[in-house]
Specification:
alpha/beta, elongated, Methionyl-tRNA Fmet Formyltransferase, Chain A, domain 2, 27% helix, 25% strand, 6-stranded antiparallel beta sheet, Rossmann fold
Length: 320
Amino acid sequence: MRVIFAGTPDFARVALAQLHGAGFEIPLVLTQPDRPAGRGMKLQASSVKQWTESHQIPIAQPRSLRLDGKYPEDAAAARQAIEAAQADAMVVAAYGLILPQWVLDMPRLGCFNIHASLLPRWRGAAPIHRAIQAGDRETGITIMQMDAGLDTGDMLAVQKLAIQASDTTGTLHDRLAALGGQMIVQALERAGSGRLRPVRQPAEGVSYAHKIEKAEAAVDWSQPAASIDRHIRAMTPFPGASAQIGPDTLKLWHSEIDSCPRPPDMREGQILSVNAEGVRVACGEGVLVLTELQRAGGKRLGAADFLRGFALAPGMRFAK
């Protein structure tokens, strides 16, 4: 089976590698244009592009696929490449561009999406972050037949995955990426023999996982300790939860919920105690222990090492 692949970050690279390893013929890969990244803001190729080039597979990086959009020349070149690929199917995973109808109609078997949630919950750009942030106990992968809507197509395969109490977006991402790669291989094998049975998404339970913005990183200490702990885990590794104390902005990478209740005379965001085990902070409800922190320009450090270079003391208060 000939399969065009469209994806950009590491989540997509895992699926692409799985498809290649399973023996599918990949005549073309689509990925986002190189973007500035890092401290030097140098152009950096996507994870998918790096893998694709190392395997000498043809690649296209259109800025748009809309023939009537801002970059019609990119879309026209992409259309020519897609037509020439003569693919049976297209697989999409975290690509970052909306597929217009002409793309959806091109492959014989249509376009398949690997989505990191149990649809229709968490349609949209950041399903892993939002599932952790909301306190969901499970998530999973949905293989979907793509249509013109935003993650609204028929479900072709669904598999659940438990969210552990210690999961960050990073750890959950890695497990979901591996699962997605396995499932898309199975789905395409079944599609090739006509054994896929599409199921319409339920009308109930729809929610949207809006893109994570850097402005969301700040901790709101008026929230319960359990909610703040989920926020820190959801923001790890990107963009990283942040907290302001005096003129300094700290990144918070790991925390634990303290079993002791919040003292009634302490204000939200106030530091209750500081030791090698962590920084205990009063929350809107309960107490949170910060166990891994980072100052601007510094490294991620456990509480004991962090406190040797940054003075925090009981009574100091994080900005709300």
